[in-house]
Amino acid sequence: MRELAITILSSLLFFLILLFAFIGFQNNAKRLPFYHYPSGLIVNIGEENRHHWGNSVIQEDLENFDSITDFSNIESFRLRIKNHNGEVYEKDFKLITVRKTDVLNVFFSDLFLAFFSLAIAVYFYYSTRDALIFGFFFNFGLIILSNVFVLTFNNSIFLFVLTLYFGSFLQYHLIYRLRGKEINSKWLLPQVLISFIMAMIASQEKYDMILVERVVLVAHAITVLFGSINIIANIYEIIRSKPQEEALLKRVVLVSSIFLYVALPTSIIFFDGYPWFFVHRSLFITTYLLFILSFFYGTYRYTFVPSLVIFTPSIVTLILVSIILGTYIGSIFILDFILPIRYLKDRWVFNLIYLFLVTAYLIPLKLRVKELFDYWFFEQNPKLSAGINKITALLSSPLSMRKTILTINRTVKETVNVSNIIILIPGDQFASTDLKNINFVRISPQSEIWNYFKSTDRVTVTSHLEYGIGLRETLYNFLKGLNVQLAFPAYDSSSNKKNIQAMILIGEKLDKKYFSIGELKFINEVVKISGMLLENYSLLEDEIQKRKIVRDIQTASIVDNTLRLILPSEVKGIDYGYISKPAVGISGDYLDIIPVSQTKMIVLLGDVAGHGLGTGFLVSAIKGIVREQLRNGTSLEGLFREINSFFRARYKGNEFMTLLGGVFDSNENVFKYVNAGHLSLIEMRADGQIKLHSKTQRVLGILETDYHVQELKLLPGTKLFLYSDGITEAFSERDEIFGEETLIEFLHFNAEKTVKEIPTLLDAKMTNFRGNREQSDDITFIGLSFTPN
Fold first, then answer.
1. Are strands 440-443 and 421-426 parallel, antiparallel or unpaired?
2. What are the tens digits of pLDDT across the range 115-151?
3. Which residues contact 639 (CB under 8 A, 6 or more apart)?
4. Nearby residues of 698 by Cβ (< 8 Å), 6 or more positions away
5. Whole-model pTM?
6. Could you give the CA distance from residue 767 to residue 752 in angstroms, rounded to a whole number?
7. Buried b / exposed e across 227-241, counting CB within 10 Å, b at 16+?
8. Residue 412 parent element (H or E)
9. Exposed/middle/buried for 689, CB within 10 Å: 0-12, 13-18, 19+?
């Protein structure tokens, strides 16, 4: 309600200013019975002159008419008029007396359109705090207003050209804003300066109509260029993101509104003003009223922002623009009216000197303005200064990471009165550090949200993403779910590039007020300090990890001795070959070959979840359990039950293992085995026929289970193959999986090879398959061949 009241009051005030402006400018005087631009182009106002609409009065005749000072004895005036075909005709026009209220009546629709445009601009500002949309509609209203002044009083050329150029440059900013991107304020200064210079040229050379027309034509061309890019960019977004239902409708309406906006300049450039100056003026009013309404409908999902966030660089830029323009106008006034200097009569000399001075002193001036802002809005605030001093002291204090982060969080919340502060980091950072209860949130470094933060170096405002689609919708839901209003990037200062190592997420203000400039400066300084602390902790963790690696390597050498496979003596009728390659030095795969007698041999192949030093210890423990139970005469079923009981008692279901193990007997020509959740047993007969035995039982370590033996009768020349998932789940550089089918094809191809040769050949094939991609899991494979004893 407050925003609506302010909008109404601001619009009424603007209307009153318009009214007083007309009363002040307008005089009761005789004039031609039609309205025209200084170039002579007759506009479509007044039904009695409809057949003259779009034609142009010869410039010489206009100059003769404007030179008349006394109209007391003049009732008509003859003019030569050129139509759109280039033909010239003459006509006597009866002069009319125009009263002050007549202009308001004639241009009521134009004034209403300007008034409505300003109302939309004010509404956007007070309800969404979107300065760009406010500036766009406010500038649009000024274009219409200055156009009326040009038509009625033949003045305000400067304002008309200024707003025309600035409006064309705002189209450039809309290309980014309407696609959910932030606007870089560094482009604002040159755009304002170009608009100002072109307006100065047009106003000083207003009697050179050819030059003024060209200046205006260039502004229209820029509008058409950026408008066309804007339309294409939004159509591309529609095709790429494929919005549905209402979102699609809004996108289409938004594209249509931009098309309506560029319709007039397009017709002026390519169609000599058709149809705008040859049809009733209501078409112009209706078209641009539809533009305002459709733009409002199509963009409110992108621009409704419940908070105002003004960052110092933008304000500094605006101040610099004001200083430069102010000093330029003041200097011209002094030189031309107070201290007329003959050798500066040619304006280009002064412009060149002023340009040189601006170039030389722009950077020092910018730094000085920034220092003043920091002083008045930040350093002079005792609460903000005390907060930053407290946080700065943490850099040299010998506190733990947990206590430091908690202190920063508490200080920020108390100083700027926000609900929370969260540090968002990629999942691979501080991987071994316990970050519970200290407002850290991990996110996958490959996620689209983290990639979005990495690709932008600007502050992200949650409310700017509201009602977005695609990634913007995902990001909005993520930040809104954390009750976050601002997301600041924290950079790695040790790198020459701007590498984002964390995002500092700031919650919403508890008092529902806007962030002040000083508070934003405070948050920005906190982000810098947080980045330094994170960098220090990252270096510390790297050093700790290096020491852990050294310790692990030393321990691994001891463990490796306990895990090394002790090859059995020869067993009659059975031959074998194997490979065992760990992914990270210590294998999580368990391979054991144990002779029972001269004709019997036990083979076990299992896979403990994970890999590394921890699983290495587990494999070592299992090996000890197996050999102890076999010495005690435990059966194959009993062996699996004991291993299952060990896992359940020790790890309570948090660790598990798959295992395939069996007994070869060359006297009975049989292989008795148990499969506890492991991969299929592969049987390849002498004729090359392959059969998969995939029947399994429950994985070890989950629940109490009675394991049962399966029996496989063996024929002469039969080969059996056991393997771990490190083979079938290996990936190539192109993310192709090796798979079970590839393994079977390999065995078919090498059916004539011995079981001692096959493992080596398989290792070479997998190395070639992976290419430059590193091994991601432990690899174990064993082949056994059976010959009757």
1. parallel
2. 888 888 877 776 555 677 788 888 898 898 888 888 8
3. 626, 629, 630, 661
4. 676, 677, 705
5. 0.47
6. 22
7. beebbebbeebbeeb
8. helix 401-416
9. exposed
